[in-house]
């Protein structure tokens, strides 16, 4: 009896089923299945080839060893592979989120018993403070499309990437932040020019009600406010001028769903989203924010957000070693507002910041309501310690 040859349709269906099975398996195991070539040599590719499916090995081996290799897994995460270790590079959330609970426990256990000498840690703090003005021609403050345009030496042409990558000098790894196409199309082509002589950063603490700083605040060239704090009815204490509203993800979500309404005080007011290192914010909040508010909305560069996180961690470690007190890991929104102001202002004055954790019996959490403050996530005492250290080197002045 003559055996029938399998039909083309049968082969196509079989291949599709096999590929689907691999896709599900690789997603579960987080195995790299795709590649992208970059201009600059960063790592060797030998281990990358070993970790790839057979169908891609030949293609990868044909590349020069001097070529940089990025590896995508089936979940769309970007991974870079080196000859020494496989590094998860999908931003701060991907790189650090998987073991966040474990690391928080480890941090609390390490408090007061840091293995390095205290003077070594203090030297690191001094070094970090000297680098606090981070923005330059290589490190940008605001995310814009020109950051993604590069010369690709392999293709010998100019290309537009859909990711940004930065080297994290603390972990020794490369952090890669993917941007969805929809968001890319909404970004400004160039970085806006932000340059001011005097700036006021106004916190939301109830301590502002103890002083009448409104006119002084409005006298600055630029005024930073945080998380859409209201000014109507409090002008004598906090002023009325707003140049930048620095907002976190929960407030952005409420704005986009209509739960929280915002109206600019004037045509100059800008919304600033700072949590751009978080994948969820980039993929689900940033594009709707830019669609709704256009050029009024600015996204801080992931490299700057990462810089703020690094500074916070270094100073946190130093102060914990000095005081024996454990502080929470997460910087508050006002910390990003202050560091942003330090990049674009010659003189920075702080109003309405308070060590709420230790002064909660004296002052309200917010000047505009009577809610009970949350101290389980942010360390307000640590923030004030850091601001005082920055004040000591003459970069800002704490007014209240």
Could you state the CATH homologous superfamily of the largest domain? Glycosyl transferase family 29
Shape: globular
Instruction: Give me the side-by-side strand order of the main sheet.
Output: 13-12-11-10-9-14-15
Mean pLDDT over the residues: 74
> Structural class, from secondary structure content?
alpha/beta
Radius of gyration of CA atoms, rounded to a whole number? 24 Å
CATH architecture of the largest domain, by name, is Alpha-Beta Complex
Subcellular location: Golgi apparatus membrane
Family: Belongs to the glycosyltransferase 29 family.
GO molecular function, one term: sialyltransferase activity
Main location: Golgi
Description:
- By secondary structure, this protein is of the alpha/beta class.
- The protein has two domains: 29-88, no CATH class; 163-398, sialyltransferase cstii, chain A (Alpha-Beta Complex).
- The protein has 15 helices and 15 strands.
- Strands 13-12-11-10-9-14-15 form a seven-stranded parallel beta sheet, with helices on both faces. The chain has a four-stranded antiparallel beta sheet with strand order 1-2-3-4. A two-stranded antiparallel ribbon has the order 5-6.
- Strand 9, helix 8 and strand 10 form a beta-alpha-beta unit.
- Helix 6 runs antiparallel to helix 12 and helix 10 (249-257) crosses helix 11 (279-293).
- The longest helix is centred in the N-terminal third of the chain and has 22 residues, at 8-29.
- The termini are far apart.
- The model is unreliable at 24-106 (pLDDT under 50).
């Amino acid at each position: 009896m003559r055996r029938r040859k399998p039909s083309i349709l049968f082969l196509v269906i079989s291949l599709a089923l096999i590929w689907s099975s691999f896709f599900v398996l690789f997603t579960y195991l987080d195995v790299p299945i795709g590649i992208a070539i970059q201009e600059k040599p960063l790592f060797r590719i030998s281990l990358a080839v070993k970790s790839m499916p057979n169908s891609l090995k030949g293609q990868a081996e044909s590349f020069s060893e001097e070529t940089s290799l990025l590896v995508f897994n089936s979940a769309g995460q970007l991974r870079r592979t080196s000859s020494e270790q496989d590094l998860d590079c999908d931003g701060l959330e991907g790189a650090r989120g998987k073991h966040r609970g474990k690391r928080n426990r480890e941090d609390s256990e390490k408090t007061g018993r840091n293995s390095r000498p205290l003077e070594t840690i203090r030297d690191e703090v001094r070094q970090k403070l000297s680098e606090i003005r981070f923005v330059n021609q290589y490190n940008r403050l605001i995310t814009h499309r020109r950051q993604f345009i590069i010369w690709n030496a392999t293709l010998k042409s100019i290309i537009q990437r859909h990711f940004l990558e930065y080297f994290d000098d603390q972990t020794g790894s490369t952090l890669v932040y993917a941007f969805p196409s929809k968001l890319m199309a909404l970004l400004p082509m160039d970085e806006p020019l932000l340059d001011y002589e005097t700036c006021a950063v106004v916190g939301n603490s109830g301590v502002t009600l103890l002083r009448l700083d409104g006119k002084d605040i409005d006298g600055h060239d630029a005024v930073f406010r945080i998380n859409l704090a209201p000014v109507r009815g409090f002008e004598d204490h906090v002023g009325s001028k707003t140049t930048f509203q620095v907002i976190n993800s929960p407030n952005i979500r409420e704005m986009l769903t209509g739960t929280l309404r915002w109206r600019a005080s004037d045509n100059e007011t800008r919304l600033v989203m700072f949590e751009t290192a978080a994948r969820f914010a980039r993929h689900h909040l940033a594009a709707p924010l830019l669609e709704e508010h256009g050029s009024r909305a600015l996204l801080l560069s992931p490299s700057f957000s990462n810089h703020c996180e690094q500074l916070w961690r270094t100073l946190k470690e130093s102060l914990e070693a000095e005081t024996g007190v454990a502080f929470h890991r997460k910087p508050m929104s006002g910390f990003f507002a202050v560091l942003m102001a330090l990049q674009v202002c010659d003189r920075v004055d702080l109003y309405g910041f308070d060590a709420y954790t230790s002064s909660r019996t004296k002052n309200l959490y917010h000047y505009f309501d009577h809610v009970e403050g949350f101290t389980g996530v942010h360390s307000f005492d640590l923030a004030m310690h850091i601001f005082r250290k920055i004040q000591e080197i003459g970069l800002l002045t704490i007014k209240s």
